[in-house]
Amino acid sequence: MAKPFKNWYRGRRMRSKIEAKWGVFFDHVGWKWEHEGEGYYVLGDGSCYLPDFYVIGAGWHEIKGDAQGKFERELAMMYDVVKMEDKEKPGYFLAGYIPDPDPFLEEDKELLRVGIYDKLVITYLDPSGYRSTDVGFCVCEECGQVGIETQARAALVCDREHMDDIDVQNGNHPKLLKAFAAAQAYNPQAVPQYKAKS
């Protein structure tokens, strides 16, 4: 008998709990997203690949549950998709867990503010070939939109000109902390499950 797919969010079957939790986070920060849409990309080596999420206005997001994992092949595949899909939008590779919204240590609270996470590594992949792991979430203080900073330069979903080259570093913004907490608390296996036929 086939096992049911146990990880659900918003009526979608997710491949892992961590994917479902990132879906919760994206919703809480107001991002519109698609999860594993139709089709896939055929890469130069003949392999097929489709990143986990497409965030409208912010590009592709691949999710992995291990911040210490070695993902060079997956990163290369993600970069190929970013080059093919949209010359304007980067891709993001999120490896690890949802950040703790309430760190115990003061130094961890400061790291959260500047977008450095204990068990999460975000890799930014630019269509030009540039790559950085100096990446964290931020909130536009003018319009409230959530975005991602790369080397303290904001790239927000709102695409407002007022965000260009502004050093934000507010990864401890209440909007982000609430979204982290909601994502951490979500149990994708506690919702009604699809039962496979025997």
Architecture overview:
The protein is an alpha+beta fold and 198 residues long. The protein has one domain. Helices cover 23% and strands 25% of the residues. The protein has helices at 17-28, 72-85, 106-113, 174-185, and strands at residues 7-9, 12-14, 33-35, 41-42, 48-49, 53-55, 59-64, 91-96, 120-125, 131-132, 135-139, 146-150, 153-156. A six-stranded mixed β-sheet has the order 3-6-7-8-9-10, with helices on both faces. A hairpin with a 2-residue loop joins strand 1 and strand 2 (12-14). Helix 1 packs antiparallel against helix 4 (174-185). It is globular. It starts with 6 loop residues before the first strand and ends in a 13-residue tail after the last helix.
What is this entry, summarized?
It is built from four helices and 13 strands.
What attributes does this structure have?
single chain; 198 residues; alpha+beta; 6-stranded mixed beta sheet; 3-stranded antiparallel beta sheet; 13 strands; 23% helix; globular; disordered C terminus
Instruction: Please tell me the overall pLDDT.
Output: 79
Please give the order of strands in the largest beta sheet. Answer: 3-6-7-8-9-10
Number of strands: 13
Radius of gyration using CA atoms only:
17 Å
Task: Give the SSE string.
Answer: EEHEEEEEHEHEEEEEH
Q: What is the terminal separation in angstroms?
A: 5 Å
Helix content: 10-25%
Helix count, per DSSP?
4
Strand content: 25-35%
Q: Main β-sheet, in a few words?
A: 6 strands, mixed
Overall structural class, as computed from helix and strand content, comes to: alpha+beta
Residue stretches low in confidence (pLDDT < 50, at least 5 long) are 194-198
| Shape designation | globular
**How many distinct domains?**
1
